[in-house]
Each structure stands twice: as structure tokens, then as C-alpha cells.
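## retry 2 of 3
previous attempt timed out at serialization; input unchanged, resubmitting
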Amino acid sequence: MSEPTAPGHAHHNPIPGYLAVFAFLVAVTAFELLPLFGLLDIPAPLLLFLSAVKFTVVVLFFMHLHGDKAINNRLFFVPLFMATGSVGVLMALFGTWSLQWPVRSHHDEVTGVRTEVRDSDEIVARYRGRWTDACNSWVKSAATGNVYCSSPWVGYSNQPAYDALKVVAAPPDPAFDGWDAKSAEDKKAVMMVKGKEVYDSKCAACHQATGLGLAGTFPPLAGDPVANGDVTEHITIILKGLSGKEINGVSYAVPMQAWASLLNDQEVASVVTYERASWGNSGGPAEPAQVAALR
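## retry succeeded, writing output
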């Protein structure tokens, strides 16, 4: 005669529970494998969490089989922390915090055709989590949905651009060789030729070839007090420019630019001499040495 089963100890079929655990583990594993087939992007921290969940379920399952409540101290917490910690360290070292797959399967709902699209090797090399250099902008690939660095940081200098725009004064003119040994007439002849060249290319657009300027805009040089007066003031105006000064009682709206960085000493002395000896002016000539002293 069999003994009655004690209350609370009824026999239960464990197979459904075991199948449920197995199905759960398979489902989680399948979810983790989706990125490998280009079907889903899963951030690496989430994958790490799923691995920890699987590990926990497996350990609890064996705890249940053994009926050992103390097993959690030697089989659960220590291995769990070691596993998750080591996986985290490895992911940090190898830059795999974001698992992305370069190939995606595209299904055309109209034609029913399924094709594969792939990021280029250049884009793959710039995936977030793989790209280790500085990045100015992150974008998502239209082909695969992966995030990559579209604008890597590049060091640059704007100095070459400024250098390209910089105007360098012309080198010394051979016509000025042996300058100190030349007579006053020879000096003036050389500077009148050079001065007209400079004036026509730099000054005539404003002051006109006639030296009469434009009324109310650019002052005339013909009969100008400066062109007939102190040569030092004339040189200074050419070098440093002029604005806000009335000339013969007339104000001119457009300031004159400074030419110090654009003309060498010979050119400045020549154009000053040319202006002071043209259009009826009677100012004395300038010397390159005077220009050098006033820079």
C-alpha cells in the first residue's frame, strides 16, 4: 500500500519549465545574432547586458537542478562579475562598443526582390566604435543605417591663404644702380620714367591721368599744396594714406589707401617726384633714402 503524498510535495512535471528556459536562451541568442546577418543594429552595451542575462539564467537553472542555495556564492556572483568585466574590458580595448555590420538586406515591397547593400570600405573604417580619431560630424549611412564619421578632424592653417594674398613690393630696379654717383638731372630722369609707370598703374584710376581727380571723390594733384610743398608730407601720405582732411577747402569721401607695403622705396620716391613735376607742379624731387627714413 503506497504512502500518501505529503501536502506541499506534489509531483510536478519539470519538462515544460526546462523547455521554457531553453526557448528563452535560444531567443536571446538569436536576437544577439541578428546584427551578424545585417538585420538589426544592437548597441554593444545591450549585447553585454543580454550576455549577462543569459549567464544568470543558466546559473539559476543549475542552482535549481542541484537544489544548492549556497551555490550562488561560488558559481553565480563571482563568475558573473568576472565574465561581464572581462567582456567589457575586451570591448573597450578593441573598440567594439558599437557593433555595426556593413551589409544590409533590402526588400523591395513592389517587386518583391531582395538585394544586399553595403557601405564602402572607407565608410566601414569610420564606423562609430571603430573610428578612434577626432570627428567633427557623425551621420547615419543611408545604405545600411550604420553611424560613421563623415567629417574627420583635419588640422589646417589659414596662413598659406594669407600669404597667397600678400602683395610683395617689387625688387630694386637696376636703373637705380650707382644712385649716389648720379647727377641730379640723371636721378630726376630715372625717377620720372619710373614714377609715370607707378602712377599709371597705381594712381591714375583715382587721380586720373590728367592729375585733375574726380570732383568730390578724389582730389586733384595738379596745383595741390602738398605736391608743391614739403616733400616729407607728400612721402608720408603715399606711405600711410590719408582720410578726413580737407584739400583746398574741399572734403573728399573716399580715403586714400596706404602704399607702404605695396611699393618699395624707389617706387615711392619716383611717383612722388613724378607728381611734383607734372601738371604744372613745381615741388622738388624725393630720394629713396628719405622714403626709407619715413617708413
